[in-house]
Amino acid sequence: MNIIYNKIFLFFKFFIFVTLAYESQTHAKTSVESSLEQVKQNVENSKANFEQYKTNMETSGNNVAELTKAIKNLRDQRIQLSKNQENIAKNKLSLEKMKQNILLNKKSEQEKIKKEELQLAEVKALLTKLEANQKSRNENLAAYDTKIQEIEKEKQDWDTQKQFAGELGKEIDLKEKEALNERQKWIEKKQSYRSEALKWQKQAQSAEQTQSKFKKLGDF
Q: pTM for the full model?
């Protein structure tokens, strides 16, 4: 960098020298003060130009360095992009494999769903049948309860009839006893009447015999 600055400085010194020589030949009649003033102005201009070009050169160098870094960065990005593209291809392939596996799993799940739907239909049919059975059994239970109530009522009726029959039996026993007593009385009366009848039959026969005897005696 210093070598470049030295070359630029020598170039401006040479430029100033040539300018002075040219002006001395063209303006030989110009005063020395005017020439010195012009030289001074040229020196200042040259230094100013030198500083400006030096600044421009430094700026250019910085720009070159920055651009070099940018180019390197872009090249690195290109390399990374290439790697990324390769990775993208690999990732896409991996994703495609994952997709195929997912499709297989999906197909398996769909088949299971169909199978389970059939099982569910069977279960629903069984559930419907069981619900119908439950309804029928509940109706049977209600009918059984009604029948039990009827039986209990009939048992109560039989208990009432039994009680009535017991009372009736007692009444029958009492009437039978009364009837037996009454029959016994009549049996006794019958025997008494029989004895009396036999007694009076004998008396009647005896009276008839006596009458017959007296009748025969009267005939004589």
A: 0.34
